[in-house]
Amino acid sequence: MLSVVKGLSRYHTEESLRSHLLERSHRTENGCLVIEGYGRRRGVHQKVAGRAWAHIAAYVVLVGGYDPALDVDQTCGAADCIEPTHLRQLSRAEACRSRNQVAQCRNGHDREIDQATGRYRRVCRSCNREAQRRWREREAAEVAQARAAYGRS
Question: For residue range 40-84, what is the model confidence (pLDDT) as tens digits?
């Protein structure tokens, strides 16, 4: 069953992978079993045992019945959680629908709902307007610099 996990190191058996995952993880106060993979950032998907995603490897050895055609998702929302009761398999469409979205962008502006999809727009209009303004200024500066290099003003 381990052969269907992409990127998993071939020297692992189910028992050695289970012990490897459990020794690299710790329990948090909210019940999640958080793994410390190769990355240093907390809260993102981690890779372990070669180049395999930790939550997929944990689903294979701790839960069982892994179907490679489906995505492994955490019900708790923590991307680095490998708690077996928090892992489930969903279709890609269902996993996308179940993601929660915040009503404000990272700059604090309210995001609008896209009429075509019924979900929040990826970028709010204020941030998009500012990004376009900065891009136009950069382009104008590059054009002015190129003209000056050719002796034009």
Answer: 666 566 667 667 778 888 888 888 888 888 888 888 877 788 888
Percentages helix, strand, coil for the chain (3-state, rounded to 5) are 40, 15, 45
DSSP run (H or E) holding 53 = strand 52-53
Are 60 and 5 in contact, with CB atoms under 8 Å apart?
A: yes
Q: Assign 54 to helix, strand or coil.
A: helix
Quote the CA–CA distance of 138 and 45 in Å, as a whole number.
Answer: 35
Helix (H) or strand (E) holding 25: strand 25-27
Instruction: Look up residue 8 and give its two tokens.
Output: 């998993």
Across the range 127-143, mean pLDDT stands at 95
What is the rounded distance in angstroms from the CA atom of residue 53 to the CA atom of residue 51?
Answer: 7
Exposed, middle or buried: residue 117 (CB in 10 Å: 0-12, 13-18, 19+)?
exposed
Q: Report if pTM > 0.85.
A: no
Phi, psi angle pair for 132, to nearest 5°: -65, -40
Q: How are beta strands 25-27 and 71-74 bridged, if at all? A: unpaired
